[in-house]
Amino acid sequence: MSWHAVDAVDDAVEATRRFLFPFSLVRWTKLAFLVLLMGGSANGGVSVPAAPDARIAGFTGFSEVWELDTGGITPSGTVDTVVSDLVAGMSTEWLIVAVAVAVVVAAVTLSVVSLSLRLVFYDALRTNEIRLWKPFLGRLRQAIGLFVASVVLWSIAAGPIALAVLVGVAAEAPVGWEPIDTFAATVGSLSLGPAIVVGILGSAVVLFTALALRLTYEFVVPAMIVEETGVIAGWRRTWSAVSGEWAEVLVYLAVHFFVRLGTAIVEGIAFVITGSAVVVVAGIALLVVAVPLGGLGALVGTTVGTVTVVLVVLVAVVTLLAVTLPVSLVTGSYLISYEVATLGGIDSGLTLLHPDIHPKSTDHD
Q1: Residues 206-241: pLDDT tens digits?
Q2: Element (H, E) at 87
Q3: Residue 114's Cα: distance from chain center in Å?
């Protein structure tokens, strides 16, 4: 008997080759951008202009706020003073709330953007065209739904763990809130048998929720792209495909573990080799600069030395990223190709790969 999860190991190699080659700098640059920022990564940043807009540059000397009184226009204080007064006028509690809200909004926004970019990558596998902006905007609604589903599933998975920790803490030292203290005392008074049952049930919840998360990102997302639907409809379609193929799913999970381990080893080797070379070259460069400056201490004790260290570090990071990112592109493309190839093998109606990429297609030249 042939297992689709096993056949997909070789199929993903061919699909990755067809997807990435022949080499195109523009194509690889766009795909590398997606791999760097798409769902699940913590990468992200905010660009800040290095200089003020030319239209307001002429006003940079005016740092004071002016007001009109009976004697004419007089300075009433600096902008910094006004801002400081506003901040001082806010209570500490409101300031904490404002910062917390800003952090949450930023985190949610970055997460949705990252997930939308992940969907763009799947869209590229489906169309064999690397487009960014239009698919990104078109997939935002799906990305929001995927984010909400992820938060719900993560909350369910973390619930039993958080509850166990809370009970353990409250049992040792009551928190002062009667519902929690009473619940902790009740759970703590359970005999061994019921306690084991509760533990097994909690573990089962975590296990099945973790499996649901895996299937959401590895099977439901491709189904959402193929069917052009949201998360719930994607789950219905995926469930209809895998509900009678649990042996296939179990084999897939086992094979996927080794596939992911192999890609992680390749990425790790590339990072270690490249990182070692970059560190050596950067160290030599700093030594060469330190000699005329008067020694290693001058690298942090002088302006020139500090600027040099910053520049060397920036060049080292960019170099490391430029060398390892193509490796991550290949391994990431292979891993996703393996996942969608397995799903397409289980249910041909959920085949995502474009005919020019699909390893079993005869349309590819």
Answers
A1: 899 999 999 999 999 999 999 999 999 999 999 999
A2: helix 79-89
A3: 6
pLDDT tens profile 107-127: 999 999 999 999 999 999 999
As a whole number of angstroms, the distance between CA 267 and CA 205 comes to: 33
Q: Is the dihedral of CA 303, 304, 305, 311 positive or negative?
A: positive
Structure tokens given for 3: 């297992």
Question: By mean pLDDT, which of 93-97, 115-119, 267-271, 353-357 is the weakest?
Answer: 93-97
CA dist 135 → 122, 140, 160, 184, 339 (Å): 10, 9, 38, 50, 21
Averaged over 41-69, what is the pLDDT?
35
- State the virtual CA torsion across 340, 346, 347, 352 in degrees, nearest 10: 10
* Number of Cβ within a 10 Å radius of residue 318: 11
- Are the C-beta atoms of 299 and 308 separated by less than 8 Å? yes
Q: What is the rounded CA–CA span in Å between residue 275 and residue 257?
A: 26
- Domain spans of the chain? 4-40+75-350
Contacts (Cβ under 8 Å, ≥6 apart) of 347? 240, 241, 242
Mean pLDDT of 20-28: 95
pLDDT of residue 149: 95
Alpha helices in the chain (DSSP H): 4-20, 25-37, 79-89, 92-127, 133-138, 140-172, 178-188, 192-215, 221-227, 231-242, 246-293, 298-301, 303-346
Q: Identify whether the C-beta of residue 11 lies closer than 8 Å to the C-beta of residue 341.
A: yes
